[in-house]
Design a protein that fits this description.
This protein is an alpha/beta fold. Helix content is about 40%, strand content about 15%.
């Protein structure tokens, strides 16, 4: 059909439709959705009747009515008898937090930014040996376009490792390999939207880059209440989201595990409400005090999506992650990834599979765990000596610590760090803008980040900026 134009009765808002006859409904739905998402149609705006808009566009009235109905079902529009069709009242997107500082070694003199392991400790020689063995044994078809679920060799190795190390029920057919956590979350967000999920509850403290992935799919992100014991999962029943994103083994960035009672409450909510728990097990292998905290997924494999990566245990540059999915979702998520694996290199997958099955991965993690524990202990001791008013928390596991500061000092510490060219982040950087939380002054320090030769200098610089 030729191009069609219609004024929607709002100053400066025109609708342009230029699609083939078979795509009229979809084209109109997409155009209206983008007008609402982009703010050109404000909440509460009344849209033309289906009859008048159909006349303006020169299309059938049923097409407009169906497009309106689709957007009502998605939550973009509301329709009430007597008041017509209006743009739904939606929460205003929160202002994006400042972007993470660059992670390159040249951006800071002392790098204590959280989120990255010691890249200098990557086991290059062992990885190279695994790559040679994997390439030598690889069938020719491994060099072609792959299964969207990932190589069967890696999925089988992961199923064995996750079962014994993290308590995950992991059948290879339930695993989908992805290129990191954000990629996996993007695939899940797409599937959730297609299943008409509208809200995904999130922690009051977390990573905005993950929230933004979900928000970009049109999902609302109400924050769960948070107290001294961590995320209050008992509130899920009242909030009634379709899914929840949690870091139950080691809450990021606050550092506490989700208590047994709250773990059970989250699973019970998922069972009763047909909800889904997205479990981010980002550094579950690195626990130093007490027994290992197993994955939440083991409590109900049909209600929890377990997500892990090699980003903390090996290196984020590998771009290898995995999802262990409920049986009802495994094929759906694989379809969302595409008919062939365009994202994850087969040779890297085969190398990681060999690294796991040969025992090299376990040896590397054991060595890294000892090294990071020593650093944690040195951090605690140095702060006890040089900054006794600072409380260190969230250190039973992981690669970062939260330093609780005297009231009103977070910004002054960050300014001092900038002068020292010391890379640290304020706790406020990780706070959800809609969360009802008391004021809290703290900084988040990634003690796993520096190479060994730079650790002592980074620790000295940190002590210099403490109040």
């Amino acid at each position: 059909m030729p191009e069609s134009w219609a004024n929607l009765g709002v100053d400066g808002v025109d609708l342009h439709l230029d699609v083939g006859s078979s795509g009229l409904r979809k084209g109109l739905t997409d155009a209206l959705r983008e007008a609402v998402r982009g703010g050109r149609l404000a909440p509460g705006t009344r849209l033309p009747s289906s009859r008048s808009l159909a006349v303006d566009l020169g299309i059938a009235r049923n097409t407009v009515a169906d497009a309106y109905a689709d957007l009502v079902a998605e939550g973009w529009l509301t329709a009430r008898q007597g008041s017509g069709t209006r743009v739904a009242q939606r929460s205003v997107p929160r202002p994006l937090a400042p972007p993470m500082p660059p992670r390159s070694s040249g951006s800071v003199a002392y790098n204590l930014l959280p989120g990255t392991p010691d890249l200098a400790s990557f086991p290059r020689a062992e990885w190279l040996r695994a790559a040679r063995r994997a390439l030598g044994a690889a069938p020719n078809e491994a060099l072609g376009y792959g299964d969207p679920r990932g190589r069967i060799e890696l999925r089988t190795a992961l199923a064995d490792y996750l079962a014994r190390a993290r308590g995950v029920y992991a059948d290879p057919d339930r695993i989908v390999v992805c290129s990191g956590f954000a990629h996996g979350l993007m695939l899940l967000a797409k599937v959730l939207r297609e299943r008409r999920v509208r809200e995904v509850a999130v922690d009051s403290y977390g990573l905005d880059v993950h929230w933004d992935v979900l928000a970009a799919a049109g999902l609302r992100l109400p924050p769960l209440p948070f107290d001294a014991l961590g995320t209050r999962t008992e509130e899920l029943a009242a909030m009634r989201p379709g899914a929840v994103l949690l870091t139950p083994a080691h809450q990021f960035p606050m550092g506490m595990p989700l208590s047994p009672g709250r773990r059970a409450e989250a699973v019970e909510w998922a069972r009763l409400s047909d909800g889904l728990i997205l479990e981010d097990d980002y550094d579950g292998e690195f626990r130093y005090d007490g027994q290992m905290v197993g994955a939440l997924q083991g409590l109900d494999p049909d209600r929890v999506v377990y997500m892990g990566t090699a980003s903390k245990s090996l290196a984020p540059g590998l771009r290898l992650g995995w999802m262990v999915l409920p049986g009802s979702l495994a094929s759906v998520v694989a379809e969302a990834k595409g008919p062939e694996d365009w994202a994850c290199g087969s040779l890297d997958q085969l190398t990681l599979a060999e690294f796991l099955t040969s025992g090299a991965y376990d040896r590397h993690v054991r060595g890294a765990r000892l090294r990071y524990r020593r650093r944690r202990d040195q951090l605690v001791e140095a702060l006890r000596e040089h900054a006794p008013e600072v409380t260190v928390s969230g250190i039973a596991a992981g690669l970062h610590a939260v330093l609780e500061l005297p009231p009103g000092t977070e910004q002054s510490v960050l300014r001092g760090a900038a002068w020292q060219r010391l890379g640290i982040l304020g706790l406020s950087r990780f706070r959800h803008s809609d969360a009802d939380l008391p004021a809290r002054d703290a900084v988040v320090v990634g003690y796993g980040t520096p190479p060994d030769h730079a650790w002592a200098g980074a620790l000295d610089a940190l002590c210099r900026v403490m109040p």
